[in-house]
Design a protein that fits this description.
2 copies of one chain form a homodimer. By secondary structure, chain A is α/β, with parallel strands linked by helices. Chain A has a single domain, classed as TIM Barrel (Alpha-Beta Barrel). Helix content of chain A is 31%, strand content 19%. Chain A is built from 8 helices and 8 strands; from the N terminus they run βαβαβαβαββαβαβαα. In chain A, strands 1-8-7-6-5-4-3-2 form an 8-stranded parallel sheet. In chain A, helix 3 links the parallel strand 3 and strand 4. In chain A, helix 2 packs parallel to helix 3 and helix 6 packs parallel to helix 8. The interface between A and B is medium-sized, with 31 and 31 residues.
């Protein structure tokens, strides 16, 4: 099992103040965030519309932490290069949004970025069967994506399955969990094998003075 | 012809700093902007993805000026209510993105908002034939929408045609022009009958200290 010092926290700016995102990104960086998680939605793959590559580009100078960009857009291919150029470090895609899923992962890698695969709650882990050599992160969604503030869907066996697949690869691959993460649900996800926890509401809900406490509580340290 | 005092300037925050949009909105308000113009793009109706209703909601407390929201999203119907609830005052749609165009305009009005119709450079003014009673603003695009910084497409006869249609209605309807607006192109558009000028780069390019000068120059006062 992963120890607390190896756990990474990725606050999702979906729950930040969109009127001052630069400050928010700098604040979570200072509060100990490991990754800056960016939820990109287009109103097609999911029923919400959030922020695009221009916003990522504007935020990039506000933190040197890893920009972990989760693309909930369909089709995703036309935007891979824009997010790479905007300063994403990890680009995570959904197989349902990429008809040539293997090629899209190759394209992300070819741009010098890390490639992630996101699994909706109902998506089987079998979609990973033939692409693991191209994968740097697997994101197990514990809510159906679209909106912040939803309740955690407990899927420990799915997380265990993904951890087992990662173990066979013999290299560092992140296992990220996103949706309904609190200090309590984080504990369950970590026990099952997650090493990166995305958290929106649980980090941002009480304002900047509490960001460091909140991140520490989710990390379980 | 419209006099300088009747001209309204609508800076487009597409050209603002996305990392501190709240401050940017307050700054253009203080600099004399009449409307706050918000360009919403979904990567489907146009090949760019910008900001959604959550951002509009976050910006609403930063200005009491008119929020003039231009929806370049298709289909547009699922998002009308979200933008109304987020604080839009004017909601402008494209006929190509609304298969039941007349009904969508009714829906915007039913939510207590002003309804706008946007015409791409290639869209004929005939789309207005049967909807003028539902229209509070006509937006003549002088670039093909998607990105800031494009060159003005001169369409004076189209603007004159729209002004003539408005004149027959006997009530205040805005004639807005958007795309490549500078103090020079604004003069041409105003001469043809425009009374609201959207400007992005021309307002924002030299930073907040110049916003008031830039707005004044476009207004031609």
């Amino acid at each position: 099992m992963t120890t607390a010092s190896e756990i990474r926290i990725a606050p999702s700016i979906l729950s930040a103040d969109f009127a001052r995102l630069g400050e928010e990104v700098a604040a979570i960086d200072a509060a100990g965030a490991d990754y800056i998680h960016v939820d990109v939605m287009d109103g097609h793959y999911v029923p919400n519309l959030t922020i695009g590559p221009g916003v990522v580009k504007a935020l990039r100078p506000h933190s040197r932490k890893v920009f972990d960009v989760h693309l909930m857009i369909s089709p995703v291919d036309p935007f891979i290069e824009a997010f790479a150029n905007a300063g994403a470090d990890i680009i995570t895609i959904h197989p349902e949004a990429a008809p040539h899923f293997h090629r899209t992962l190759q394209a992300i890698r070819a741009l010098g970025k890390k490639a992630g695969v996101a699994l909706n709650p109902g998506t089987p882990t079998d979609v990973l069967d033939h692409v693991m050599p191209l994968v740097d992160l697997v994101l197990v969604m514990t809510v159906n994506p679209g909106f912040g503030g939803q309740a955690y869907i407990s899927l420990p066996e799915k997380i265990i399955d993904v951890r087992r697949r990662i173990a066979t690869m013999g290299r560092a691959i992140d296992l990220e969990v996103d949706g309904g993460i609190t200090p309590e649900t984080a504990k369950e996800a970590i026990k099952a094998g997650a090493n990166v926890l995305v958290a929106g509401t649980a980090v941002f809900k009480d304002g900047p003075a509490r960001y460091a406490d909140r991140i520490r509580a989710i990390r379980g340290g």
